[in-house]
Specification:
By secondary structure, the chain is an alpha+beta fold. Helix content is about 55%, strand content about 15%. The protein has one domain. Strands 3-2-1-5-4 form a five-stranded antiparallel sheet.
């Protein structure tokens, strides 16, 4: 295995370690009574920002309270990140192409599962509304976007990765790049 690959894997693990110190995701909501916007940061282990104020706003449309105890993911995400980081560092020093492929598949699978889990969380909050809410419309859901910006009634919500989320995405891309490069190198050797 090339030394460059080792350096890239260690760098990718460093980017993943940002998940312990910085937020992964950020949701911002703008409403007439909050023109400056309300933001909530989602970390691997907690929520921060204007969570209480967002809960008050969400109460009017019948959404459930956002509270850390409702999300078991916040208990095990740091462990999963830690395992992926340690696995990556071990892979970088073992010179095993098979382990690089396994690490890449593990990181990619966790990224896909994390996005699906987040979408499912948003779907649940946006579709399972309290029928006695102060504001309601027939067939109306309030699901925030997974990625991007969306409007419903007079509320605009945007959802984007935050610093640790971008770091993790770059780690996934680096892992895929190394794995593809190794596969192409192997193909060249077989053809020669």
């Amino acid at each position: 295995m090339r030394n460059l690959y080792k350096i890239i894997i260690v760098f990718a693990c460093g980017l993943m370690s940002l998940s312990f110190f910085l937020p992964l995701w950020k949701i911002t909501i703008w409403a007439p009574q909050y023109p400056e916007g309300l933001s909530m940061q989602i970390w691997s282990h907690k929520f921060s920002g204007d969570v209480q104020t967002i809960n008050i706003l969400n109460h009017y449309i019948g959404m459930q309270m956002i509270q850390e105890s409702s999300f078991p993911e916040l208990k095990y995400f740091p462990t999963v990140f830690g395992v992926l980081i340690i696995f990556g560092l071990v892979v970088a020093f073992l010179n095993s192409k098979k382990l690089i492929y396994l690490w890449t598949v593990s990181v990619l699978s966790f990224a896909i599962w994390g996005l699906y889990d987040f979408w499912k969380w948003e779907y649940n909050f946006g579709h399972n509304l309290n029928p006695d809410a102060a504001i309601k419309m027939d067939d109306m859901t309030y699901q925030p976007p997974l990625i991007g910006t969306k409007e419903f009634l007079n509320i605009q919500a945007s959802s984007w990765p935050d610093l640790a989320g971008y770091g993790f995405a770059i780690s996934v891309v680096l892992g895929i790049g190394i794995s593809l490069s190794l596969l192409l190198d192997r193909k060249k050797i077989v053809e020669n």
